[in-house]
Amino acid sequence: MGRRGYPPEFRRRALDLLAAGRRATDLARDLGVSSQTLYLWRHQEQIDRGLIAGLTSTERTELAAAKRRIRELEAELEIHRRASELLVDRSDPKGGSRRSR
To answer: How far is Cα 16 from Cα 11, in angstroms, rounded to an integer?
Structure first.
């Protein structure tokens, strides 16, 4: 698995060099990234500019945040369910309620 989080300026410069006619394999070697990474960046840029269909970078970020929040909420819900089960199964330490006369 490759390194994540290249600075946006680095990506922008790499894409500018690709657009200027540099070969992806040469550029990848010079920048220390894989040529596949350059192709992925170019593909995502085309999506962001609306040239091809797909999730934009903003949509991807929002989707990841939404999925993370859903996981948090599901974990919280599970905690509440377990607590509820514990309270239902709990017995009265005095042996229950008395019968009324």
So the answer is: 9
